[in-house]
Design a protein that fits this description.
single chain; 376 residues; mainly alpha; 69% helix
């Protein structure tokens, strides 16, 4: 395998995005894996943030009371439905972990010029399931624990002060102070930690799947790459551009799809509204799966070039004379032997002179009569 790319070496990041888009478009079967990587979240939580304002408080209270009576009368059905949701959530979780490893393997195969099969990708994903799960647990588990500890350390003393304060102004001041100081600090820790550990997870997953390393070695190598190369952060910053465009387009389309659902729920047609929400979730899962495949292919292409598995070959300009050297390709050493001299041409000799003409006999002098021998 080729050596690692030199630190600071130039990398064509836009060519990486073009390569990732080409892989995602030419191998649409991988969108199935992308659905479970990125689209499963949209199905398990199908845009449940949509809210509506009721017509009046009296009707809202009546609806809540009616719903409470229905739940009390159908407790068994509610428990069964909750258990079904938990089961579906667990299945989605297991499939999403397997799909992450399978998608990394499949995009690497596509980058090598092969056509990955969906069944083989699932098989690799389940073989690497434990490794993928441990990479995520080791990275995001401590972040979750730190966020909970920070929340408890910030807000439990404040709650104690509020409950024990005899003055309402003191309680209000403590509450406002905790909100102004504690929440920004908590958000800062969570956001920064999620960005850094998310980048480490992306690279560690590729070390674990493509190079078949253990989860500890994968995390260690990815951590060194994140802080030892500027390329990883540049790639992360560049991936924000398609992410922003995708988020804006999907947000507008989602609002257009959810507007009928909100209107149906507002007018009391709850079942119809829920059906529209589920349909919108399934429709939006298609572009979400395609984008997840594109993102995985782009990061896999970046990983291959960062580790020297793939060399970008820019188009060679037309030149006169010797061709320009290609980056990453060592020219052959010069030969120690001199080439043989060209054969020496034989010297050209002048053509031989023609033979001399025979001498002619002198004729009779002017005025003399020819002799007998001269007569015919």
């Amino acid at each position: 395998m080729a050596g690692r790319q030199r630190r600071g070496a130039a990398m064509d990041y836009f060519d990486i995005l073009k390569r990732g888009l080409k892989i995602a478009w030419e191998h649409k079967r991988l969108w199935v894996l992308g659905f479970f990587v990125g689209g499963a979240a949209g199905v398990s939580n199908p845009y449940g943030q949509a809210t509506f304002t009721p017509g009046d408080e009296q009707s809202s209270a009546a609806q809540v009371e009616s719903f409470a009576r229905w739940v009390e009368a159908n407790t068994g059905l509610v428990v069964l439905f909750a258990a079904l949701l938990v089961f579906v959530g667990l299945v989605m979780f297991v499939l999403s972990i397997a799909a992450q490893g399978g998608l990394v393997w499949a995009t690497n195969e596509a980058a090598d010029g092969r056509r990955p099969r969906l069944g083989e990708a699932w098989a690799v994903g389940f073989r690497r399931w434990g490794r993928t799960f441990m990479i995520g647990l080791c990275l995001f588990g401590p972040l979750l624990v730190a966020a909970v500890v920070l929340f408890v350390a910030l807000f439990v003393p404040v709650f104690s002060v509020i409950t024990q304060a005899s003055d309402a102004e003191v309680a209000a001041g403590a509450g406002v102070g905790s909100i102004l100081c504690g929440i920004p600090l908590l958000l800062l820790v969570v956001i920064v930690g999620s960005v850094v550990l998310g980048l480490v997870f992306i690279l560690a997953l590729r070390y674990g799947v493509i190079e078949d390393r253990g989860f500890g070695q994968s995390i260690s190598a990815a951590w060194k790459d994140v802080w030892g190369k500027r390329g990883a952060w540049a790639m992360w910053a560049l991936m924000l551009l398609p992410g922003i465009v995708y988020g804006a387009v999907v947000g507008v389309v989602s609002l257009l799809l959810l507007a009928p659902a909100a209107f149906a729920i507002y007018t009391g047609q709850v079942i119809t509204g829920i059906g529209v929400v589920m349909l919108a979730a399934l429709v939006m899962a298609v572009p979400q799966a395609a984008y997840a495949t594109f993102s995985a292919a782009s990061w896999t292409t970046f990983f291959r070039r960062m580790t020297g598995r793939e060399q970008a070959q820019p188009p060679m300009p037309a030149t006169v004379g010797y061709p320009q050297p290609v980056a990453g390709v060592t020219p052959p050493p010069p030969s120690a032997e001199l080439p043989p001299p060209p054969p020496v041409a034989a010297p050209s000799a002048p053509p031989p002179p023609p033979p001399p003409a025979p001498p002619s006999e002198p004729g009779p002098a002017l005025g003399e009569a020819p002799t007998d021998g001269d007569q015919p």
